[in-house]
Design a protein that fits this description.
Strand order of the largest sheet: 3-10-9-8-7-6-5-4
Oligomer: single chain
Radius of gyration: 20 Å
Shape: globular
Helix content: 40-55%
Largest sheet: 8 strands, parallel
Distance between the termini: 40 Å
Order of helices and strands: HHHEEEHEHEHEHHHHHHEHEHEHEHEE
CATH topology: TIM Barrel
Number of helices: 16
Number of strands: 12
């Protein structure tokens, strides 16, 4: 009998039971001792909301505008690398679930399914871009996003060098050890490894080949991500791309101001899911000062530690205009494919409605710092 999930936390447990050990550790882990990974979740969950009563909350509207489109709720599926390995053609399944729910889906540069494959499924995603040393390849990826009709480009800037991820190293291994991990998950083997082929890095096939294993992919990242990039490079991307440009990986107010000055349409307050600089601020702690610094000049998105609709409301109250989820949807994808992602989005929708009703908000634009319990000028954590 299939276990039911009542929350994203339940989907995490189901994903652990379904994925090979090394793949779950890649999805679930952070860098170094995972201090920031834990902070993302714990700091957000500890944000205190102000309960209000005897308000008419019989009609609640979650819809919101972003980049010229009306979305069903202020939530999108953020880019998650290798998510096509969590379920058969996983990025295509996630894109379909997002489209059905009328929320955006951002495809990672390091996805298993290529941008072309996802777009040909009928649901064109936003496209997430990394800087690599080969600017010709970067320019080609931008051109691919144009040709596919992507509505937004998300430029991730917090991976000049990869963070050290101890969990990946501990779970790695080839030969008998890797084979044992694979054989321990026959359902995944049947669904993904056998019937989900080709297993490749779709967008990177021109540079890493069609059958590059995960260790080759990691070696390519270490050898090709560009540590020399500056804001001038962001301006170059802006010159290549006419649509909404979102800078992902902002944790400092001065960087937020620089993003606005570079021509960005929005930023994502993010620490890469705790996978880069361990010990950095959680997104929840960094968000209020950044939102104040740019004060409505450009859109403020945020990710990091979001595990429920209640967390979405917290992020909005802290200053975000829109919230991206990452592991939350990837866990659900691994557990139940497209149906899991669709269900996780329904859970978030329902949880947002309860949180809004009990804080006296009937629309997204009413969610602000007024619903936070405060100590002095700071939200209570």
């Amino acid at each position: 009998m299939r276990k039911k999930a009542a929350s994203v936390t339940d989907y995490r447990a189901l994903a652990r039971a379904k994925l090979p050990h090394f793949l779950f550790e890649y999805l679930d882990g952070g860098s170094y001792d995972e201090v920031t990974l834990r902070r993302n979740v714990e700091d957000l969950q500890s944000v205190s909301l102000k309960q209000r009563v005897l308000r008419d909350v019989s009609s609640i509207d979650l819809s919101t505008d972003l980049f010229g489109q009306r979305w069903a709720m202020p939530v999108g599926l953020g880019p998650v690398g290798l998510s096509g390995l969590y379920a058969r053609r996983g990025e295509v399944q996630a894109a379909r679930a997002a489209a059905a729910a009328n929320v955006p889906f951002a495809l990672s540069t390091v996805s298993a399914c290529s941008l072309r494959e996802v777009a040909e499924s009928g649901h064109v995603p936003w496209y997430q871009l990394y800087f690599v040393k080969d600017r010709g390849f970067v320019a080609q990826m931008i051109e691919n996003a144009k040709e596919a009709g992507c509505a937004a480009l998300i430029l991730t800037v917090d991976l000049a060098v990869p963070g050290s991820r101890y969990r990946d190293a501990r779970a790695a291994g080839g030969g008998p050890r890797r084979l044992a991990q694979l054989l321990a998950r026959p359902g995944w083997l049947w669904d993904v490894a056998i019937h989900g082929r080709p297993l490749s890095l779709g967008n990177l096939e021109p540079v890493v080949g069609k059958r590059a294993p995960l260790n080759d992919f990691q070696a390519w990242i270490h050898g090709n991500f560009d540590a020399s990039v500056t804001w001038k490079d962001v301006e170059w991307v802006r010159s290549q791309w006419d649509g909404p440009l979102v800078i992902k990986g902002i944790l400092d107010p001065d960087d937020a101001r620089a993003a606005a000055a570079s021509g960005a349409s929005g930023i994502v307050v993010s620490n890469h899911g705790g996978r880069q600089l361990d010990g950095a601020l959680s997104s929840a702690h960094a968000l209020p000062a950044i939102a104040d610094a740019i004060a409505g000049r450009i859109s403020v998105l945020a990710d990091g530690g979001v595990r429920s609709g209640l967390d979405v409301v917290r992020m909005l109250a802290l200053g975000a205009d829109f919230v991206l989820i990452g592991r939350a949807w990837a866990y659900a994808l691994a557990a139940r494919g497209q149906a899991g992602v669709a269900h996780a989005l329904k859970l978030i929708d329902a949880e947002m409605r309860v949180a809004m009703a009990l804080t006296g908000c009937t629309s997204v634009d009413q969610i602000g710092n007024e619903i936070l319990e405060r100590s002095g000028n700071q939200a209570t954590f």
